[in-house]
Amino acid sequence: MDAINNLIDGFGTALTPQHLLFAAIGVILGTAIGVLPGIGPAMAVALLLPVTYGLDPTAAFIMFAGIYYGGMFGGSTTSILLNTPGESAAVVAAIDGNPMARKGRGSQALAAAAIGHFVGGILGTIALVLLAPTVASLAVGIGAPDFFALMVLAFIAVTSVLGRSRIRGFASLLIGLTIGLVGLDEMTGQSRLTFGSLHLADGIDIVIVAVGLFAVGESLWVAAHLRGRPAEAIPVGRPWLSKADIRRTWKPWLRGPFIGFPMGAIPAGGAEIPTFLSYVTEKRLSKNHDEFGKGAIEGVAGPESTSSASAAGTLVSMLTLGLPTTAVAAVMLAAFQQYGIQPGPLLFERESELVWALIASLFVGLVLLLVVNLPLAPVWAKLLRIPRPYLYAGILFFASVGAYAVGGEVVDLLLLFVIGLIGFAMRRYGLPVLPAIIGVILGPSAEQQLRRALQLSDGDPAGLVNSPMAIVIYVIIAVLLAWPLLRKLRKPRDRQPVGTR
């Protein structure tokens, strides 16, 4: 009951005219930027992060809730209409959404995606309300060895499921951990990787890192590979579903959260895995499985509902443990840190009003997303025709303004474009960006927890595994690391002829 009462108080804060306006602005801005080719919700949130600097924390995070869900819907719009997913979680929507659009059913695909986001987000956020306080109360008793083990699990899980190889994932993580080392050592006061620059003594602001790796890196990569042709226009009519469409989509909408929320709440790399699981599930359960890959509406409805519920699930670990497992959650964690707020077990006690207003605004943002974006689908489709040179020049301009606003120093602009070049090189060699962001954010905290654990055990490494929780987590990590090797060892046996056994 306490959670329900706190949520009602949160609605009292989120439903004020001023905060409703910020939520609406967030939904529109998030969708407008997320709908542009090559820009996913993480990049949309990173690009708009500096916009919230002048706002109080509550207004800023209410606006972020709108940007979060608006960017997700925008990414699926691009995926459906242009076959250009803004992020990996929107890849599945293109499998059937783009064939639907090419058959003249783009409006139905967009409607299935929008309502799927709404249903999955509502059910996922309800689960967040019910579970997050319990997880937070349990997490208060977690010690330094357990926290360090959790952070190592986040590192391993994210690097294991993203990218084309684990080596590239760990290389990306190493880049992030190195950037996170820049500045003064908190315990000894020694400078690390500052190269004698006083400006780097406080480290590199996470906003500059996020905007540089996402916005600048992506802009340089696209500019190096695309020409200035406008996108092919696909007509988008009235986004509405017939009774036959609803009969085919309501079950996938309801099944999605049961796959997406649990997978999002654990450190498993975000919505990529659950959306593919949802697609496979819907294909097996559908009577129209022959249409999958050719324009089955279930192939859009299920994965989009799953993706939205997974986004709510990631907020559980981010708010209660301070562990971001997706790029968007990592950028939102950076937003908390810019206001001097550290998500974790005590967040629900110290910043109760802010947290419950944020959770209530997730509901508000989802309703606004549905109300605003269904009629505006043809408008968003027209944004796709912006020539790429103008589009990415604008992104670089706003990224530069945002980075300069962080500290008002020219050095910040230089750092932005150096990190942007690193992001460009990572894309060139197939390194995923998310492990680097996770490394920058969690690296200093992991180092601090490691040192605390070793201090408590007088330097004995056995102190890192002195609790049942830490032991269980390290067993899970060992399974994650050993699973590909075990799978390779099993394949020759599986292929062995029966008569030779």
Kindly describe this structure.
Helices cover about 75% and strands about 0% of the residues. The protein is built from 18 helices and two strands. The protein has a two-stranded antiparallel ribbon. Helix 5 packs antiparallel against helix 14. It is globular and about 70 Å long. It starts with a helix and ends in a 6-residue tail after the last helix. The mean pLDDT is about 75.
Record keyword descriptors for this entry.
two-stranded antiparallel sheet, globular, mainly alpha, 501 residues
Low-confidence stretches: none
End-to-end distance, in Å? 61 Å
| Amount of beta strand | under 5%
Structural class: mainly alpha
Can you count the helices? 18
Q: Tally of extended strands? A: 2
Strand order of the largest sheet: 1-2
Number of domains: 1
What is the CA-atom radius of gyration, in angstroms? 22 Å
Q: Biggest sheet: strands, sense, closure?
A: 2 strands, antiparallel
Helix content: over 70%
InterPro entries: DUF112_TM
Keywords: Membrane, Transmembrane, Transmembrane helix
Protein name: Tripartite tricarboxylate transporter permease
Pfam families: TctA (PF01970)
